[in-house]
Amino acid sequence: MFKFRYYNHIFFFIFWLFCQASNASPFESCPSKAFLMQQAVAQLYGVNLVTGEYSLLSSDLGTNDKINAVGFNFHDNYIYGWGYEWGSIVRIGHDYQAEALAIEDNPGVNFFVGDVALSENAYYFYKKGENYGLYKVSLDEQTTDYLKTIKIIDGSTLNMAIFDFAFHPSNESLYTVDKNGQLFKIDSLSGSKSTLGNVGQTGTFGAVYFDVDGRFYISRNNDGYVFIIDVEATNPTAEFFAYGPSASQNDGARCAVAPVIDESVPATTDYGDAPDSFGTTLFSNGARHASSDNYLGNSISFEHTAKVYPSVDQDDGLVFLTPLIAGIDSLLQVQATGSGYLNVWGDWNRNGIFESNEKLISDRYMSDATEVFLVESPFDALSGFTWIRARLSSIPGIVSYGGVSDGEVEDYRILVTNPGNSQIQDTPFYIAFEDRWPEKGDYDMNDVVIEQNSSILLTENFEVKQIEFSGELKALGASYHSGFAIQLDNVLPTNVDPALVRFEINGVLQNISPIEGETEFLVIKITNDLESHITLTQSCEYYKTENNCTNSSFMNFSITVPFIVPIAIDTFPEAPYNPFIFGQPDMYHGDSFFHPGRSLEIHLKNKMPTSKADLTMFGIADDRSNGNATYQTSNGLPWALAINPGSSEEWKHPKERVDFLQAYPQFSEFVESNGNQSSTWFSQINSVSNKTYNF
Amino acid sequence: MNVLYQNTLSVIVILALVSCGGGEEDTKKNASNVIDVTPAVVLEIPIETTDELVSNTTFEFTSGFDLTLILPALDSPAVLHFVNICSDYTEVEKVYTINYDSCRLRTSFTTLKQSFILSLSAAETELIAQVWPIENNAIPINVFWSRIDNRDVWEIDINN
Lengths: 695, 160
Fold this sequence. Notes:
The complex is a heterodimer. By secondary structure, chain A is mainly β. Helices cover about 5% and strands about 35% of the residues of chain A. In chain A, strands 31, 32, 33, 34, 36, 37, 39 and 42 form an eight-stranded antiparallel beta sheet that branches. In chain A, strands 23, 24, 25, 26, 27, 28 and 30 form a seven-stranded mixed beta sheet that branches. In chain A, strand 1 and strand 2 form a beta hairpin. The longest helix of chain B is centred in the first third of the chain and has 18 residues, at about 5-20. Chain B is an alpha+beta fold. Chain B is built from three helices and nine strands, in the order αααβββββββββ. In chain B, a hairpin with a 2-residue loop joins strand 3 and strand 4. In chain B, helix 1 packs across helix 3. Classes of the chains: A mainly beta, B alpha+beta. At the A-B interface, strand 26, strand 27, strand 31, helix 2 and helix 3 of A face strand 5 and strand 6 of B.
């Protein structure tokens, strides 16, 4: 016994000397990509966990045999693994050449399960069976047990049919999933294990990783599917995450303290832009694609993190030549650059999720083509605007979420109608308010600016069955707090079932009804306080009215109001309807009255106030409302304008404290001619560009 | 007449009085002309702020144009036809690219004549009617309207 140990030490010393001669430098940093070791003669791949995209890093690792049980060492930035050619630990640096390291008390067999700890500079490896078990080897040259093998527990006590394990980034435990889907947590000090539950997937999970946030990724050998597991969950489940590379042999390594998104390099991931309930961001395991030569339309954009509606990408692959008509054929034009399988989903029940059976197109192969497809949405698809997701990929059968190594995802907000219905879309209006009513104010008309879009659905009998409003807060140059609402004059609120009204702000379905109670005519209340929806930047007093005051926050709304009894078009009010702002309870709103609250309303000229307005406010200060001549000064000037520039360009509101005429000089001629001259006074070409706010 | 308007007018009149003459002699010589010139100067005063604006009580500050669109009845259509009436489009070598967000009407042709009133912006002076047969490999028929002579009725004919 003594003799054996003596020779063993001599062998270890010679082996150590040999290894010191070829000392490659480490990786420069802790990489965000995962490493995947595959094949009978080891090949190393880099895997982007976000998309599953992978690329060969080296097919020559300086060995003619396998390398397995790999782990990335955060302490020295080397990959460590088990080299079958040497029957010992190997170290791989940035030249991708394996260096064998002789270890003392080598167990004498090969291992395929291993990782490097984070809390200590040590390599752990495991093999089941009573003659083996869980071992560790110190990789710290400063320790007395450097490269000395220590057995933590024997492999009959710690008995698992596993193919890889990984260290959690913060709790010093090892995690693994066995072939039956059991998730285990292993105490690296004692070797004791606890079973955390079955994750619902079976197979050979040959490569497992953690990211810096403690999310656990497992890659299945036979199909390459990458699943993600929340190991802290009460019932942890493996959720499909990305389509990765498949292989008969697989082992993974990753620097567990690295985020999965590397923002120090240009973005290479394409995301959708639907509301996040559909799965858009990485956090929600949203649809995402690695950069490639196949995509929808003529171009593709990449982001580090997903934009989410109302922030959107410029998508160009799909054109809905007709609205989607429930139960009958519609026309959809799709352009594909490169080749791949097209899949399209629609949220027919408008529950904010693409269910697996909500398909419009399944695995349609396209190759460098623009095609017009006949598509049929289901007969029970709810009418109104909904979301459509299209994905192109060389991989068939993909789902509506998760990562893919190529192609593109595009999301669209699209109208669904019923057969025989017509959609009339009103020209877009910009509703600009001066909020100092009944005082005239500075007349910059930017205290509240709302872009208001509306459309109605007509039955074949020319009755309005539904109205949809959508819009966006464009400016808030006010110090008063105001709410925003739209009255449909002479439409009774009893003709609306509030339960059927759909109301979204920033793409998020709202739980509160926008139908205001106890009003004579239908009032759709979008918000009690516009300012509560935006965040002012530190140096700016107002929202998008001052020089150098851009603002990335949005306030965007969408409301669908179906009518119980369709209303004859001839009696239905016309766009822009009756939008108005109103006061906030218990808030100052000028010196003309004390905390007027909801009873203060500011409408377009000659529009009727709601039944909640306090009509005794008429005639105060500069207001000269009289009978049907409402909300006007003694000069007939209004406190609100409805400007409709068409769809080709946006209307630009005046900057803070710029008199309206300074920004739009032709406005005077328009007014004095009663609208007969300078009827396009509002166009950008007729504006004074340094007097208007430029987005 | 509000105070600002009065003040502005006074300043301009004074400036006109001061600047019209080249010297004392000329001023005297043309003393009566000063009074004659003043009204012309006043007429040329550009209104610079909304304080000076006056509007008719009934004028509602909106601009636009109502177009009556008439779609013909389709005689026993073999395939359904759909039409998009849109205002924002471009043409390159007879290929029309439409911003479908600008469509004012989207509807199907029926066996009955249909009439719609579309409220357009004053900036919307041209429209395209893109008629699609709902069939595979569909090719659209494009028809155009232009706001020439305030033509406020547009009857689309695709039967011929």
